[in-house]
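Researcher: Structure prediction, please.
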Amino acid sequence: MWNLCWETSTGLRPSCVAFYERFLSMTRILIWAILFAIAVAVVMGMQSMGGAVTIWWSDWRIDFALSTAIFILIGLAIVHLLLTQLLRWIGDIPERFRRARLHRKESKRIKRLADLALDFTEGRYARVTKAAEEFERDFDGLEDAKRPVQRLVAVMAAKASHEMRDMGLRARWMKRLEALSKDETDHPHLQPLTLAQFALDERDGRAALQSLDSVLQGERRQIHTLRQVMKAYQLSAQWPELIRITKLLENRSAISHVLADHNREVAARGMLSSPRLDRSQVRHVMDLLSKDDLHRPGPTSVIARAMLKLGQASEAGRLIEASLKVQWDDRLLEVYADCEDDCAAQLAKVEEWSRERGDSFAMSWVLGRLHQKCGQAGKAGLYLEQALEHRQSVRALLALADWAEAQSDTERARDLRQRALAASVLNPLTAPERSAAPQY
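Model: Predicted structure follows.
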């Protein structure tokens, strides 16, 4: 039984705990029964020896057998004990009433605080700000808990006011929080973290960093703070710092790899968007990224496009080929089509990839572009039409229009350009297509 009840990680099971308690209760009853039987046996044994008790009171005389006297004494002791307990219980009635009233009052306070937190979680911000006004008088008698609860209520009310876009009410609650936070050693970063969150929601990265400065000096390893700093770096366009803190959070599993790759892509695009782009800037971005990060599809596509702007087609092609070996992404194929280096070698690689990966818009597009560059007009038109079957892309429509015009099919070229114009109106060009559209 005990082997079945015992659990090495969680102790006894609930059913076994109940069995154990019943077992102890029965054991105590059995021990008292044995002690009572022993006492009776001792008394009867003393009675058999002829013991007696005589009580004289004036002219009165009372004779008892020894056993009877012992039982009477035991009974009087029990009665005395019961009377004492009764008098104590009666005397404790006022204190019990006081404790009951205090318990009801504390339960009411806790319930109201829980309701406030639940309303805040459910987004009932008007109810939060209204209920927060009543907490000041509810905690007057609890000096130890008054200040922390008031700070908590002030923070929730300020955040609720922020969500309702009531800046005047938010400022009033933040002023109240500032007054409550003076000379407080517990949770000293409550106010700056709240201000930083407000600044991030208003997309003011510099104000958020200014609020977080004191927090970073004290707790650099706090994950929540570092996440806020990451958002602030992105909003304030501090791209090298964004790459650094993204790597730090990713190593601690504090953000997803998808978000980390997105941040690195945004940072690379931000650093390489200068109209005076040069090779040193591209090299600086590549130095900031680790070898693994450099082969992620997002940063690779941004860096490869920057290389193409600088006329480094061969370097861009090699970078994309290395990245595709690590992680396949069709976005890189669309950039690879613009790497005009060795057309025949590129076409051979893409045809090998096509046999391994199958057909897709990006695969058909890059095959059509490469066949067009290599002067194989028939296959170029076939693959470009195949790409349009996957997706109505402006780039593909314009490329196919140029192909049709080269084939002296001016009517079809005109129709394709009209379709491209209509598609661009309904669905504006994406950044990669906009950068390449002037070629056609």
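Model: Confidence is low (pLDDT under 50) at residues 6-10, 429-440.
Researcher: Thanks, that helps.
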